[in-house]
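Would you mind writing out a protein's amino acid sequence and the numbers that encode its backbone to help me picture the idea?
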Amino acid sequence: MTDELTGPRFGVNYTPSRGWFHHWLDFDLDAVRADLDAIAALGLDHLRVFPLWPLFQPNRTLIRPRAVEQLVSLVDAAGERGLSVAVDGLQGHLSSFDFLPSWTATWHRRSLFTDPEVVEGQAAYLGTLATALAERDNFIGLTIGNEINQFAGDPHPDPDRITPDQAAAWLRRLLAACEQGAPGRLHLHAEYDAAWYQDDHPFTPAQAARIGAATAVHSWVFNGTAQRYGADSVATGQHAAYLVELAKAWADDPHRPVWLQEVGAPAPHIAAERAGEFTRTTVAAALDCPDLWGVTWWCSHDVDRSLADFPELEYSLGLLTTDQQTKPAGRELAAAVAEARAGWCAPPPRSTALVLELPDEAPKRSTCAPGGAFFEAFMRLTADGARPTTLLAERVADPVHLAARGITEIVTVEDLGRS
């Protein structure tokens, strides 16, 4: 949970300046150190790093010791610079590219989520990483993988379709492996926003808010928010804060920490000359959310344009250029971090709750998506000066829950429609 005295954590998703995540193929610790020096100079306190799963576990029963050693050396180098490290295990999916080991594909195709041998292979891999890092003081914990829910349904071109019960069983098995390898660390899972916005998606909001040590949200305004409402709109500037507060509706713990684990300023949806302002607005809105664990920006460095076939927006998301120059978003984030740490005061409770009528599996959760009735009601409240949070309809009559969250006013979508 956020320290009431020092405030949330501030970090960055580490994209190596040389070779992108393919740097694991030609691992150069000196190049990594140069990247880490530039990151530390921004005043950040942690990294999220991404081993490429096929390189670390090329065979179901072979987890390469040298690859694990390189990961540990990266974590140690970060620690020397005062940086903590969270590690994502199953990559999985990064910046439009899929990285799956050959023992799950083509002639060996089997479900990533339900095949017993695949799941036990994944558990062995995550457990190995956790064990290797368990004694490092600057190791935060493991995230199962990066947005691996995209393999479970549309719009992936070849998904492994599962039910919500199967998704939950998979999450619990792999998180148990993480906990066994490194007890007591911040082990969690992270989905892209289909879990919150897409009707009938097998990974659900309730899973995100109840399984694992914290809830992760990934905020990307190219999901229709910036296109529909405009780059300078309330909806675009508040999208990350909205996801943080939306996540709280399903949490059983009224003060469960929420980690804004990915957020960035994608061009052209956010023009380059406005990236700094978007960063400042987004971070300020997120810091107004109680129980925020931290903000981890995407990403540290731009993608080198010598690398082919990335979507255009992926090349320019860095806080830093490939030659370690700080960009406007990097300057704004550094300033926001310094300001927050100099005078941190935890935000008061969000006392106005917008009621959400969805069951745990939330089959019709598109009401929460950009353009949905619930989304637009939340943004209307925000534009009118309220600081709304979200509340499941089943908890409206629960005085203990309301008191724990500091909720004193309850508003429905229908109320706003009549006003």
